[in-house]
Design brief:
The protein is of the alpha/beta class. The protein is built from twelve helices and nine strands. Helix 1 crosses helix 8 (217-230), helix 3 packs parallel to helix 4 (102-129) and helix 6 (188-196) crosses helix 7.
Length: 292
C-alpha cells in the first residue's frame, strides 16, 4: 500500500489521543476516514476540524457487535468499502489483582479484547475484498508486565496473539495484519491516571530504563501511518520497543523481574490505598462514558 490517498481507513477510538492523531495524518495524505468512538463531542469536533467531505463519524460501542456491523456497513455505503482497519479503542484500570474492582476488570476485558474482535469481525469482509490491512493496537505491556496493571497487561498480550492468529488466517487472501506496540504515551488516558494516582507516575519512574520512557502522541501517529503504508507486521514506538519484544523471555525470569520486585512491596500497597480512596478502578472519563 504505497499510498493511502483514496483509501478508506476505519479507526476505533478515533476521537482523542493516538486515534485522532493517526486520523489527522492519514487525512492529510488523502485518505477517507471512518471514525468511531463513544465520546460524541470530541468526535464531532475532529470531524468538523478535518472537514466532512472525507470524514464519516459513528458514535458506537466496540462491545456491541451489532453497533460495529452497522458502522462498517455505513462505511461501505459512504466510501464503497474499507481498505484499512485500526482497532485502537482501549481503556485501562487501576489496582492490584487483589483489590481491582471486578466490574472494572470485566469492562476492561470487554473493551480491549472483545472490542477488537467485534471491530475485526465487522470490517473483515470488506477488507478481504480490497486485500487490505488490519492494525491491532497492542502495547509494550504485551512484552513487559507492570504491577497494578495486570488486567491491562493481559488484554494487550491477548490482542497481540489475536493479531498473530488472524494473520495466519487471512494472508492467503491478500490481507496483511500488524500489531502496534508503544511505550507510555502522553495521551488523555495516561494523563488521567497520573492525575488520579500519584503512585502511577511514581511506578513508571521506578521501572528500569528504557521501560520508564514516555513517548508523544505525535511520534506514535507518525509510526502508525508509516506502518499502515508499509503494511508492517509490527509497529514499535519508539523503535527500541522492538528490542523489548526479543527480551520478553528474559523479563519474566527472576533476574528480569528483580528491578521491579525491589519497589513492589512499598509502592503497590500505596497504589491500592489510593485506588480505594478514589472509589473507582477506571479513569473518570471512562466512568463518565459508562454512566451515560
Amino acid at each position: 500500500m504505497p499510498s493511502v490517498a483514496g483509501k478508506t481507513v476505519f479507526i476505533t477510538g478515533g476521537a482523542r489521543g493516538v486515534g485522532a492523531e493517526v486520523a489527522s495524518r492519514l487525512h492529510a495524505k488523502g485518505a477517507n476516514l471512518v471514525l468511531t468512538d463513544l465520546d460524541k463531542p470530541p468526535l464531532a469536533q475532529l470531524r468538523d476540524q478535518l472537514g466532512v467531505d472525507r470524514v464519516h463519524t459513528v458514535v458506537a460501542d466496540v462491545r456491541e457487535l451489532s453497533a460495529m456491523k452497522d458502522a462498517a456497513a455505513s462505511a461501505v455505503d459512504r466510501f464503497g468499502g474499507i481498505d484499512v482497519v485500526v482497532a485502537n479503542a482501549g481503556i485501562a484500570s487501576y489496582g492490584s489483582v487483589l483489590t481491582v474492582d471486578p466490574a472494572a476488570f470485566a469492562t476492561l476485558m470487554d473493551v480491549n479484547i472483545t472490542g477488537v474482535f467485534h471491530t475485526v469481525r465487522a470490517t473483515l469482509p470488506s477488507v478481504i475484498e480490497r486485500r487490505g490491512y488490519v492494525l491491532i493496537v497492542s502495547s509494550l505491556a504485551a512484552y513487559a508486565a507492570a504491577p497494578g496493571l495486570a488486567a491491562y497487561n493481559a488484554t494487550k498480550a491477548a490482542v497481540e496473539q489475536f493479531a498473530n492468529a488472524l494473520r495466519l488466517e487471512v494472508v492467503h487472501r491478500g490481507v496483511a495484519v500488524g500489531s502496534a506496540h508503544m511505550s507510555w504515551i502522553d495521551t488523555p488516558m495516561v494523563r488521567d491516571a497520573r492525575a488520579d494516582l500519584s503512585t502511577f507516575g511514581e511506578m513508571i519512574g521506578k521501572l528500569p530504563f528504557p521501560l520508564n520512557q514516555t513517548t508523544s502522541v505525535q511520534d506514535c501517529g507518525e509510526a502508525f501511518v508509516s506502518g499502515i503504508e508499509k503494511r508492517k507486521r509490527q509497529v514499535n514506538c519508539p523503535a527500541w520497543v522492538g528490542l523489548v519484544r526479543w527480551l520478553k523471555p528474559v523479563l519474566s525470569t527472576p533476574l528480569g523481574e528483580l528491578p521491579v520486585l525491589k519497589f513492589v512491596p512499598d509502592l503497590l500497597p500505596r497504589m491500592d490505598a489510593e485506588v480505594a480512596a478514589l472509589g473507582r478502578s477506571l479513569g473518570q472519563r471512562t466512568r463518565d462514558l459508562e454512566e451515560r
